[in-house]
Sequence to fold (973 residues):
Amino acid sequence: MILKALDSMGSMHGYGIARRIEQISEDVLKLNEGTVYASLLRLGQKTWISWEWGVSENNRKAKFYSITKAGRKQLARETEDWERISGVVTRMLRFARPQ
Amino acid sequence: MNREKEFDDELETHLSLLIEKFTRQGMTPEDAFHAARRQFGGITQVKQQRRDSTGFTQFGIFANDVGHAIRMLWKAPGFTVMAVAALTLGIGVNIAIFSVINAVILRPLKAPDAERIVRFLNTNSYGSSPIASFPQFNAWSRQTTLFEDVSAHRIDTVNLTGGLYPEQVPLARVSAKFFRLFGAPVALGRTFNPDEDVPAGAKVVVLSYELWARRFGRDPKVLGTSLVLGSEPHTVIGVLGPGFDTEQFDPLPEAWVPFQIDPHTNERGSFCAVSGRLKPGVTLATANAELRSIANEYRRTLLSPNPRATFTVQPVRDAMVSEVRPALLLLAAAVGLVLVIACANVANLMLARATGRKREIAIRAAVGASRGRILRQLLTEGLVLSLVGGALGLAVGMFGIRGLLAVHIPRIGENGAGVNLDGRVMAFTVLISLATGILFGLVPALQASRTDLTDTLKETSSRSGSGLHQTRARALFVMSEMALALVLLVGAALLIRTYTALRAVNPGFETSNVLATQMSLTATRFEKTAAMGQLVRDGVERLRALPGVTAASSACCIPLETVWQLPFFIGGRPQNGSGPPFAGWTFIAPEYFDTFKIPVVRGRAFLESDRAGAPAVVIINQAMAQRFWPQGDPLSDRLIIGRGIRPEYERDGPRQIVGIVGDVRDTGLSSRPRPAMYVPIAQLPDDVNVINLRLLPIAWFVRVRSEHPSTRSSIESELREASGGLPVTRIRSMEEVEGQSTARSRFEMTLMTIFGCSAVLLAAIGIYGLMAFAVEQRTQEIGIRLALGAGPSAVRNMVIRQAMRLALAGVAAGITAAFGLTRLLSSFLFEVRPRDPVVFIASPILLVVIALLAAWVPARRATRVDPVNALRWE
Fold:
């Protein structure tokens, strides 16, 4: 999800990512925003994202994360996986419907 | 910048942005703050997650484990001391041997591109020799596509005269490229120019740093002065730096002069060693392949006699140590076995301990430790033990071995001073400690971590006995220990028998009460036979006049150290096809046989009347008489000696055999006496005398009734006076010479014995530990047996029987292994067969007796079990 956010929005800091997730999940997915950082660390270790220092809207120092090439590849893979799985789920739902 | 701080800042920014957002939505600052904290979730958790992800926590856990391990070991001092002692022994002997191997085999030469420097060898089906002739050197120097800086060297002993005192110095004759080949640092002046390294070139000398410091007080004005070396003045042109790696030479040269080999010479009687550097891109294999055809070519042009001989090259470091390498590898294998035994021992101790710790481990597992986590904890304990053992082993091994190194091994320096703690030894210590820790720690850890929680926790601690599986593992360990210990014991016993056999050998001459010293006559006025004959007569007379001296003599060489071999023809006999036979050749002064108490079996010894001009005579030994005159009488024949080997010997006419003397093992105590010829010093042709004196200083021998404190110094001063001021080497007793000739064998025997004893000790501890533990575990059972009427002896025998079953099985396996393995020892043995029945009967008996003793103590303890107490145990 973070990858997707970074992919569509470009470079963003942690707060921005949290806002973006909030926005696209339409508040259905309510999570502790701190967990965003755990994910960012993990993605950083896998070199799917990179970061650089910048200045936030309220003039504080902030890390701006952006997706890397490896990250885009991973995103493509995951999206494909996701579509396949959700495809299966939809089919199952369709089969289930007649009951 | 601090990562922790950075991350805090980042979270801080996030929170402040949230607060701002909430404030904009109309909250009070305080509400906004709390709402932001709520929405963000646990800050500490996020921070902890970040720390975990960096890997430092792994280190934290490791540090924790180490701390815990140290506490656990501290609480079990008996176990810890036993384990550390076994490991110190096991690792210590390995470090001892490794540090020697490191110094001798692994340590690179201190020369540029040292790995590419090779020594040229003459190789035939019997082996290789670095001794080369001048035409060979010239042939190799021409192979410029394969090698560069090909250079010859030879070390002679010459007298350095003039100045305060005369002394004998080892003098290296080297060709001009030598210094470049070995990267000699020049402290002062220069080394030779190529135009000085030509026949009859300038007499120049380069000093070693040591000689410069000792004799000239590091005076830079020494350059250009003249130094009298073997009566010839040489101009000093340079001084080498102190760091020059001269360990490849024996003895270490103190002065260097140009070899001045004629590039077109055909003379094959002079010798040198030849080294060179492989050209970039040339491998050892290609060089050796090319040399084979070069050898063929060489044989064709120079009509060399031996068609099977060829040339090879070997890295110079390997060539230097090739003689001791097998012994070192043998010792390395032995210490490897000791270490395996030590590992088995400690593994056994840990298994025993793990049984006692079952509850502790089960509780850890119950409160959530994963199996991997427990495994790690137990392995850490093992590693702590092995690292402590390794550190102690380093101290014991490195410094222990130095005490045993009074033996001649190339590159180890005086009394092992070259065996040093360096990076490789450190790395070896750490690696062997870690490997050991894992080796002995893994099996017990795997077993202990495989605990069935509920069962263990339900059991009471006293009854949590050893499962079948565990006892079997322990029994197997003890059995292998016994087997390996037996292999080592057999090896040690074979070497002990070898050494005693060597010392019991009758060398054919009496070494006691004989003193020996050497004097270099190279390029002195004594090179002419007449002058040398006069010197020897005069010197011997002076020596014999000393109080307590019963006989004195002189000869070309010291028995057991150097022997010349020359070809000979028997007058009137037809030559057979395979070339003339060789025999030992020693020139001696008349009283030689009296001095060494070598019996004259037939005929006579030499007399003063056997001088130049008198009929030429020779004396042979019994071995020669038996071999070449199985029927006839040697005393009626004449010998022609040295013909064909070099022109100098052509003038030595036929010699009448006038006597037969007893055989002498002068080439080494372990080799059979070979045919030998003795000729009087006074009858040597002048030219023969010159070449022999160039190659070797002459030896003086004195037989004393008993040695006085002043004997040695008076020998020295008498000889100096007789020779007009020539120095002699340190006076040694012939017993010392004999001791030095067997020092290698003694070294091997001593080390193998130490290793064998260590192994037996460890195995005994192993069997004791197992039985003591078994008795403790079976206290209840034994109590019941005793209560039901079993006698103490029945109980004792039961325990001993169990121990002996293991010991005998181990010994049987050990005998089988040793039977196969001792063959590898055969080249180290003397007058003992690898499957010597005495050794193969005595060693197992010894080991079984020791095992019996080790089992006796726990067996006795078993008989003292009080049935009442035992049944009340719980």
Q: What stands out?
A: The two ends of chain A are 34 Å apart (CA to CA). The mean pLDDT of chain A is 73.
